[in-house]
Write a structure and sequence with these properties.
With 382 residues, the protein is of the alpha/beta class. The strands form two sheets. A six-stranded parallel β-sheet has the order 2-1-3-4-8-9, with helices on both faces. Helix content is 35%, strand content 11%. It is globular, with a radius of gyration of 25 Å. Helix 2 crosses helix 12 and helix 3 crosses helix 4.
Length: 382
């Protein structure tokens, strides 16, 4: 999943005979051509700089107008679309959500994902807590951590039991509460009145749901990224079983581990290394795939079997947001949308071109969405 900061295209220029130049002095012609190219390049750069300044001024004025009106609509898309100099038509991006919109699901206006005058002190919280998915660890968030911290946010990424550098043996984890203990211990130690934005990826969605039920007053918002957003009485295994295709990559990649013997239930699930790229990182940079291949650990099996117990008064009181990953081979978009329809969050976003691991494939776009979600004000009437 390539994260391209800039894209350059090179065109082969056809050599043509220039009138007024003699072939007897090619160096003179080359020198004159080079001078002319420099003049044209300088002129073009000045025009583009001028256009960029005009666009920045227009954006600033638009932002100022929205501030005066007391409203600042947000873009539903995860990507910014910038005008291309010389293009004939500049159209506004459409909503990226394929979910039918209701009266209570307001449209997020296009082209309003802006960072000018981001006032962190005005946010309900500027503290993110990142929770990895099954097999991953806190290490997978390294790009997101850097981007959020550079923007002034406080960030913590936890290693769940038996994950990352946590010392527990994955095969010894027998319950969801044991698996999530590092996260619940972290939340328990937060000061009175201190709130965080919980972000869960993959099976981390079930983990943050468990934490939301226990500590609803300490979670300002919950963000599910290609994550298991389950209903009460449902397990992660129940959700995965909705995939009817017996030939899907996830089933092919799973390797069950039996630490207590093959006559007992599996204790963990490992993933076939040769299928990792296609399953989890089909749009990710090769370096990140290499990092994951030497860092991922088996996934404890018992927590995936455990059915969640979620109440409206606790879990239901926390504001939820979902980020879809359309190029996902591990948790297909259809399954993500099935969970969304069964347990609708406040808003749904889509990271275009993202595989199952957007912190690798689309780190900049993911960062922008997380900042945007942090800025969404409460819709509750005081």
């Amino acid at each position: 999943m390539g994260n391209h900061f800039a894209c350059f295209s090179y065109k082969e220029v056809k050599k043509e005979h220039l009138k007024g130049y003699s072939n007897t002095n090619p160096s003179a012609a080359a020198g004159s051509s080079n001078r002319w190219n420099k003049v044209r390049s300088s002129s073009k750069e000045k025009r583009e700089d001028s256009l960029t300044q005009e666009q920045a001024l227009a954006a600033a004025l638009l932002f100022h107008q929205h501030q005066q009106n007391g409203t600042l609509p947000f873009d539903r898309s995860a990507s910014l679309r910038c005008p291309v100099p010389g293009s004939k038509k500049q159209s506004l991006p459409r909503s990226t959500s394929s979910r039918p919109r209701s009266v209570t699901d307001p449209l997020i206006q296009p082209n309003q994902l802006v960072y000018q005058d981001l006032k962190l002190d005005d946010l309900e919280t500027k503290h993110f807590v990142l929770v990895h998915g099954g097999g991953f660890g806190a290490w997978c968030w390294y790009k997101t951590i850097a981007l959020l911290e550079e923007s002034g946010f406080k960030v913590d990424a936890v290693d769940l039991s038996g994950s990352g550098i946590h010392s527990s043996d994955t095969n010894s984890i027998t319950s969801l509460s044991q698996y999530v203990k590092p996260l619940t211990s972290f939340l328990e130690k937060l000061g009175n009145g201190e709130k965080v934005i919980l972000v869960g990826h993959d099976f981390g969605g079930a983990c943050i749901s468990h934490a939301m039920e226990l500590f609803p007053l300490k979670v300002a918002k919950a963000v599910f990224i290609a994550a298991a957003m389950l209903t009460s009485g449902q397990s992660a295994l129940d959700m995965v079983s909705q995939q009817t295709d017996s030939k899907d990559l996830m089933r092919s990649a799973q390797i069950f581990l039996y630490a207590n013997g093959t006559d007992c239930p599996p204790t963990a699930i490992d993933l076939e290394k040769t299928l990792l790229r296609d399953l989890l990182f089909n749009q990710s940079p090769a370096k990140d795939v290499a990092l994951a291949s030497v860092s991922m650990r088996p996934i404890p099996f018992a927590p995936a079997l455990e059915k969640l117990s979620l109440s409206d008064i606790n879990y239901g009181s926390v504001r939820r947001f979902y980020i879809e990953t359309p190029e996902d081979n591990a948790l297909p978009l259809s399954l993500q949308q099935s969970m969304i329809n069964s347990n609708p969050p406040e808003k749904v976003f889509r990271l275009k071109g993202s595989d199952h691991s957007p912190f690798f494939s689309k780190p900049q776009a993911l960062h922008k969405l997380l900042v945007e979600i942090s800025k969404i004000p409460s819709t509750k009437v005081p």
